[in-house]
Records
---
Amino acid sequence: MTSLNFDECRYLKQIPDVSCLTHLENLSFRWCPKLSSLHYSVGFLEKLKILDAEGCSKLKSFPPIKLTSLEQLKLRYCHRLENFPEVLGNMENVRELELKETPIKKFPLSFQNLTRLQKLHLCLSVGVMKNGCDGVPLSSICMMPELVDIAANEWKGELFCEANEGVEKVSSIFYTNVQYLQLRCCNLTDDFFPTLLPWFANMKNLDLSGNNFTIIPECIKEFHFLTRLNLNFCERLQEIKGVPPNLKYFSAIDCISLTSSCRSMLLNQVLILHIG
């Protein structure tokens, strides 16, 4: 057997022992409303390529995974899943991970064993994330050389951890390779710039729409690769103290607190502007 499908089983509460299914490539149990636990053997299927748990709203935990053939891990709409599973050993075939409306509070350090992950997309709109969570380890992201795209929308807890170690620890040899960073409506404040932004020295595209900071500090000038900056709907933004030297596109629509002097400064820059 290479495929096992439990999709939309209304009364399924547990995925049983599947260790005997050594040739299984596709295991799916999408939208099982009462499913709350998985047998640990789910995490040790050597030939499994697709593991789909989308929409399992009562699933609170996931067993450790050592799935060397896995290509797709689908965990969207798991409204009670709080911890990302431990990753036991390198898993080189997972390239994209989307966690829409899955309130992961903690990503283990072993998250970096997804060694060839390229895109990490997080989106939370179910209103269950609380402040004080551990977030994604920045040190793990630094160890994932192909991770170039991070997007988060409406993420209300701590998105990244280990930032409290201080900017002085961030050096030219200790930063992420992320080029596209989208953090929309993540309740970011002025602390974001000195504590988190330096970890993303390779950014080309930065989208901070809908956040709560008041100042874009002068250190933004140090981001020489940044060509696109989006600050739309940052209603508390008052001042922009610097512009990255290679910026080509800038948007600040509905930044209602932006000072007139700051608007004039921006209009004198040689770039494409959208200011409202």
---
Amino acid sequence: MTSYLVFMATIAGIYALLSLGLVTIWGQGGMVNLGLVGFYAVGAYASALLSMAGLPIGLTLLLGGIIAGAVGVVLSYITRPLRGDYLAIVSLGFAEVIRLIATNEKWLTNGSDGLPGIRSPLKAELGALHPWFYLAMVWAIVGVAAWGLTRLLRSPYGRALRAVRDDEQVAAVAGKPVLQLKLKTFFIGAALSGIAGGVYAHLTSYIAPDGFVPLLTIYIFLAATAGGYTRIVGAVVGSLAVVALLESTRFIAAAVPGLTAVQVASLREFVIAVSLIVIMQVKPEGIFRSSSQRSGSEGMRRPAATAPAPTPSTAINGA
């Protein structure tokens, strides 16, 4: 039971990194990104392949994040004329393209068979203590990322970014470099997702295209929405809440008599979907609401054409 809890706490840390990337791009930058799992996959494969080439794992995690961030910059530049639902659809398509490339380019990714034997740091040296070490390492990365983002978003860069999110045209008239801010923000968010992918690859020592499905993006949107999609602390707390929800539904569904394994899995997904809908309707601003958000939920439910910033319902509808 202890090993199970340690593993799930590690997964929660990986989700927290993904949620921090989403909060950066969506909550602070106003760009609805449904392609998180694509950057996650890029970082995972890049870090795994580089480590297999003999590079130190710490360096491969960093390089995997940089590669994923660079891919994010390219995607952001290509889609710069798009807004709202259109950007969401294109980013979702990007994630599926990455998964198909991983499936078909066997010379690079070993196709649907996946990449086995990925090294994990100090696994042989630590033995039974390795899961605890990896848990501490993951949450240390989350802590550094959260601290760095907090400092960055409180800087003039963060204030300019929120100005672009709230009204892009006014920010441009005020002299803010809108495109440059968007590219930098996409790089940061995609790099965090890439680092999360690398951490996952070295945790499981095996990755395959089936592990990078769009459903993971929905989990991260649920985490960000539950915690408060503009808040750093909301991303972390929301990730813990989502992992707890996912695992509790596993036991609850299994306790229902007369259900097959397929029906149990379907019931879990149903509970998760209902949870997302309830959160968006009852508390769309999340647990930790931003001071800039309106006191009522009416402003959160305005149509995307008139709302100054993307909302959770707009993002999911864009899926």
---
Amino acid sequence: MLLTRFRLGSRPRMLASLAATLSVVTVAACGNSSQPVKKLASTPKPTPTAATPTAATPAPPTPTPKPTIVAGATYTAPAIVQIENLNDARPQSGLSSANVVYEASAEGGISRFSAIYFSQPQGQVGPVRSARLISPVLVRQYGGTLIFSGSSGYVFGRMLTWGTTRFEETSAGADMFRINSRPAPHNLYTDGGRVEDLVKRSARPAVGYTLWNRATTAPGGTPVSGFTVPVSPSEQPSYGWDAGAGAWMRTEPDTGSFVDANNGKPVAAPTVVVMQVPAHLNPDDIESGCCTQGWEYNLTGSGPAQVFTNGTGYDATWSATESGGPPTFTLAGGAAAPVAPGLVWICVVPTGQAAATRH
């Protein structure tokens, strides 16, 4: 439009008109009463502020909208939270509040915990990390809800196929948060109120099984002062019996006493089970950017187990079905192995890798 108009006039007039036009544009850019800059500039958005609790301080921000929490609520179907066990993740939070903890080798020999809660945990829970091949197996067996940070594509495909009830960081929304006292990826957490909210959101039907009948003694057994579990070549935790606490206390070879960051106290497990199962590396399951295959564990059927409680070790047989709840542990004579009240810690290892006991 401008070029057609200026072609009809003289060159000086063209230059003069161009100068006038540029003058108007310059004035508009600098701002005047008719076209203030405020209408053209975008309003900067405030930078969100991250939550700042420490791993040892159970005081994370309140989720929005705030869920209705019942203190000490008991769940009709459990929450299963994936918790990291790399040394950078220690001390973890919330393991003392679990009813059952499964431990199995993940990639590179690092173990991962699946903490199972049938009631609202106390304080923070985490660091929350990714699901592994064993995770949807446990969800199917226990009829629970999985809480995790992410997964490999293969594990995700399995969860889709199986219809695994689950919440990861995105779908959990305000029910997960990151702390500032640890670097990513070791800083993703949830807490008791948020776990309670996720259980409500999952709307899982009530389970039809019960956990073990509790006892501290049974016929037979051998007194032991401690034992070491070959979870993997690089993860071999040691347990010692603490008669005063009535529980086994765990020690990590590289970081020492195994404590809960919520209270700074050792994680006390009255019963520890070493469950030998058929296991193999699955070549289809490879973490993104990693060449390490995932471990496939068969938790159905039966196999050898060692049950440790009340300072005594028992040789037992485990038996479990695909969706019938926790495994049973039976002694050679047919009696149930003793499972004491409180936390039950189950170490899943390949068949043939028994714990080494100390007397």
---
Amino acid sequence: MIQHRRIHHQGPRPARRGFTLPEVLIAVTVGMIVLVSAVNFSVSSWTTRRGWTLRETVDRDARFVGLSLARDVQEAGIAFTSTPVFASVDAGGDTLSVLSVPFSPAEAPVYPIYDDGDPAPTYPPGGTCGATCIEFQRVDGRVDLAAGDVVRLQVGSVRRLLLLTSVTPMGTTQFRVTFLPTGRLVNRPAGIDSLLLARTGTSIQKTTFVMYWRDPARRSLMRADRLDASGQPVPSMMASEVEAFEARLLFTAGTEHPSYNGLDADTTNDGNDIIGVKIRTKLRSQRTDPAVSGGQPISRWYEWQVAPRNLLYEKSRL
């Protein structure tokens, strides 16, 4: 038997086609561009993040300094009314100091001078019991003072600061204090030198203080709230890598000055015209990064203005 095979005739097969050389080159070029862009973006993002991390450390130090300054400056003038020549807040270039009266919980008592009964209006030059010794009367039978305290001596309208070196009870009605023989404390007049103590109108009251200043040797911002036996502030470091610290006083006339002066002809810069403080500081990063700022530390300026409500109250009351 003869079998017949059916032969199917098909059309011509399409030719197989690949990528041409130009197409390959274009694809490789586009791919390289995309890859390089992605790498550059990743490197830029990483560098930006590292720079942001350095700046954030500086900003964190600045926030800490700003909060501390605002808290302390707000205390200026609590139960301590400023006078033209003796204010509760003072600045001096890279130094800032604040005075106030403590409450624990009541206001620190005012101790009047002990009156010995002599009819003369003032005591002889010096203290009442020695050159650096004065006797005062107790208040409610108590004496809430101790060696190391800073007190405000008030003699009529004249003020001085005293650093007590001893407090000695004298019977049930009076006590004796001795103080450091120095002419300046916390950047203000201290001691009594030629000041005559009045038998009436003389008193002392415990005073608290805070000082800020820049230590150029350590490039650090320092803070102190107590004095050593020689009358020097006992510092604690607030921030390191401080390149600049500037404090200026703001006055009611809308002006600002590096300090106050109640003795010159300008009446707009008296101590009792102070309403606030402006502080500028320049902080630098403690670490460096070779990918940021050419490997150099990052520096940034910061500024704060603080207007203690106590100083505003003083002006409103006067």
